[in-house]
Specification:
The complex is a heterodimer.
Chain A lengths: L29 H12 L9 H9 L3 H6 L1 H16 L7 H10 L34 E4 L18 E12 L1 H4 L7 E10 H4 L7 E8 L3 E3 L16
Antiparallel strand pairs in A: 1-2, 1-5, 2-3, 3-4
Chain B lengths: L11 H15 L5 H14 L2 H13 L1 H9 L1 H4 L12 E6 L4 E6 L8 H4 L4 H4 L1 H6 L4 H7 L9 E6 L4 E6 L11 H5 L4 H5 L5
Parallel strand pairs in B: 1-4, 2-3
The chains are: A alpha+beta, B alpha/beta.
């Protein structure tokens, strides 16, 4: 989906907040570990089936919360969305509990239960062998989806080269929405930054791991086109 | 080792997490013990030290280095690191004139078993948005000035492959033991936002 989570290449976020040599700390506050534990253990009681269903839950939270609540705040919004959608929490149950815990009425939650789009089951089926080999040039699909996908917007409709073939992996576009599982051939596709951005540097290569269903072959032209795409005799 | 702070914060997310903890505990779906175990696991047993051990081994054992770059998943199998998120590991080596850096623009994918949980900046929008667009500028902002001629590979972890940067061994450390070298390797260098 064209959500706020799809941050690659977006301008204007200026403060990275990097502190060189910062010592490792798994969690800064206990509540972060609480959220982490809930997310890691809740597939056992049916909150979600696949990591991609969870990721899609996070992608669907309130976009302003996505930017301002931090990583574990986003995870909290995602897991509350899924727990509510699966009937493990009643609507408004967390709001009431917050009031009991803190005596405060909270600003609207990050969670967005019921926000999943009704999408058609992807029709991709993997062949017995991968369609592409290392060295092949491919073009990524220009189309976006309201569902979950792992093709970032900055990589759509772009030409790159296959640099690794990783075998069959669960297809996130399927497993985020449907039970049963479906696999797809997975590749590393490498793009010169100059193939992505007008001002892109030739000495920068961006590597994306992309599923076969996102890719089209770059075939030699069979019909001569003029520069506007019309076939000429 | 640091324990996460216990005191109450009134950020909306912190309050809400506390409320959710109470609800799920009352429903029998969550225990304080499970939370304590997770904190202990990710603070005591999982962290960047695991990645550093791999790097130091690669520096001292050319045969291991070859196997690590050929098939990272298989090369690290004997360690049986816990923590997950390395279903398939690809190790990318820095060399003179070539620098590698890792990101996840869509969420915050990261090789937990080798580096622990990611630092805040890795998960926040500024790094995730900028490093695939202006890597030279972003790295310079983070204190890493790469020569103009250095080629940069940016690895955007968009599937389940996890990436670890094998930094170049600092000059003058050739005679050091694997253990001494392990202590030199930083998380920042294994993500690729610093060199050693």
């Amino acid at each position: 989906m064209d959500g706020i989570h799809d941050l690659g290449g977006k301008a204007g976020f200026s403060d990275i907040g990097f502190r060189p040599g910062e010592p490792y700390e798994a969690f800064h506050e206990r509540w972060e570990a609480v959220v982490f534990t809930i997310v890691m253990t809740s597939p056992r009681f049916g909150a979600y089936r696949s990591v991609d269903e969870f990721r899609h839950g996070v992608e669907r939270i309130d976009p302003q919360a996505y930017l301002s609540h931090g990583y574990y705040g986003r995870w909290l919004g995602g897991i509350e969305t899924l727990l509510t959608e699966k009937g493990l929490l009643a609507a408004g149950e967390v709001d009431r509990a917050v009031q009991e815990v803190s005596g405060q009425v909270q600003p609207p939650a990050a969670a967005r239960p019921g926000s999943e789009a009704q999408i058609a089951m992807p029709d991709y089926q993997p062949g017995a062998a991968p369609l592409f080999q290392t060295g092949d040039r491919v073009k990524t699909t220009r189309l976006s989806t309201e569902g979950h996908t792992r093709l970032p917007a900055y990589g759509r409709g772009k030409t790159g080269k296959i640099t690794a073939v990783h075998g069959l992996w669960p297809l996130p576009d399927f497993t985020a929405h449907f039970a049963g599982g479906r696999q797809a051939w997975l590749y590393t596709v490498s793009f010169a930054a100059s193939a992505l951005y007008l001002e892109g540097d030739d000495d920068v290569v961006i590597h994306l791991d992309l599923f076969e269903s996102y890719l089209e072959p770059c075939q030699p032209p069979t019909v001569v086109m003029d520069s506007c795409g019309a076939a000429s005799e | 080792m640091n324990k996460p702070e216990e005191h109450h914060h009134d950020s909306p997310a912190a309050l809400r997490a506390e409320a959710l903890e109470q609800l799920l505990t009352a429903k029998g779906l969550l225990t304080a013990e499970a939370i304590d175990n997770v904190i202990e696991q990710f603070q005591e047993r999982v962290g960047p030290l695991n990645g550093a051990r791999i790097v130091a081994r690669a520096w001292t054992d050319p045969d291991f280095r070859g196997r690590l770059l050929e098939d990272g998943t298989r090369a690290i199998e004997p360690w049986a690191f816990e923590g997950g998120q390395v279903d398939k590991l690809v190790v990318v080596a820095n060399e003179p004139g070539v620098h590698n850096v890792v990101v996840c623009t869509l969420c915050s994918c990261y090789p937990w078993a080798l580096l622990g949980l990611p630092p805040k900046w890795y998960k926040d929008p500024a790094y995730r948005s900028g490093i695939v667009r202006q890597p030279r500028r972003v790295l310079a902002e983070m204190g890493l000035q790469l020569p103009e001629a250095t080629r940069i590979n940016v690895w955007d972890s968009s599937a389940e492959i996890r990436y670890l940067v094998l930094p170049e061994q600092p000059s003058g450390t050739e005679g050091m033991s694997e253990e001494e070298l392990t202590a030199l390797v930083t998380r920042d260098a294994m993500i690729g936002v610093a060199v050693l």
